[in-house]
Amino acid sequence: MSDRVEVLLTELLDQPATTPYGNPLSADRAPAPDQANLVRALAAAHPITGRPDWIGEPLQADPDALARLRRDGVMPGSVYTLSTHGPAVHAARPDGVVIAIPHDVTAHLFVTEL
């Protein structure tokens, strides 16, 4: 999208800070210093309690992956205990439900460790 369209949409939508996917709408689109993709976050510490804050653009273009994340409640702002288990990351919800998220998906989920 062009810069002009972005400015117009930002004004029309009353200056939101993020997209519905958690992506920042500022000129600096890099993750915040305390955010990392889930793969890197788990490489630094295992397990972690974290909050997905940003769904990367490759996942935004994958309707099946988005539908699975939405169905499982893995959305920006939700809190999980996250750990690596073989070919997936296990996300344990506060209600005890554990969701397996494939590594190719977790590479595009940016989390803030809590």
Secondary structure layout:
Layout: H1 3-12, E1 35-37, H2 38-44, E2 48-55, H3 57-60, H4 63-72, E3 80-85, E4 88-92, E5 98-102, H5 103-106, E6 109-113
Antiparallel strand pairs: 1-6, 2-3, 2-6, 3-4, 4-5
Organism: Gryllotalpicola kribbensis
InterPro entries: FeoA_core_dom, Transcriptional_repressor_C
Protein name: 2-keto-4-pentenoate hydratase
Summarize the structure.
With 114 residues, this protein is of the alpha+beta class. It has helices at residues 3-12, 38-44, 57-60, 63-72, 103-106; strands spanning 35-37, 48-55, 80-85, 88-92, 98-102, 109-113.
Descriptive account of the structure:
Keywords: Iron. It comes from Gryllotalpicola kribbensis. This is 2-keto-4-pentenoate hydratase. With 114 residues, this protein is of the alpha+beta class. It has a single domain (30-113), classed as SH3 type barrels. Helix content is 31%, strand content 28%. The chain contains 5 helices and 6 strands, in the order αβαβααβββαβ. The protein has helices at residues 3-12, 38-44, 57-60, 63-72, 103-106, and strands at residues 35-37, 48-55, 80-85, 88-92, 98-102, 109-113. The chain has a 6-stranded antiparallel beta sheet with strand order 1-6-2-3-4-5. A hairpin with a 2-residue loop joins strand 3 and strand 4. The longest helix has 10 residues, at 3-12. The chain is elongated, with a radius of gyration of 15 Å. The N and C termini lie far apart (33 Å). The mean pLDDT is 82.
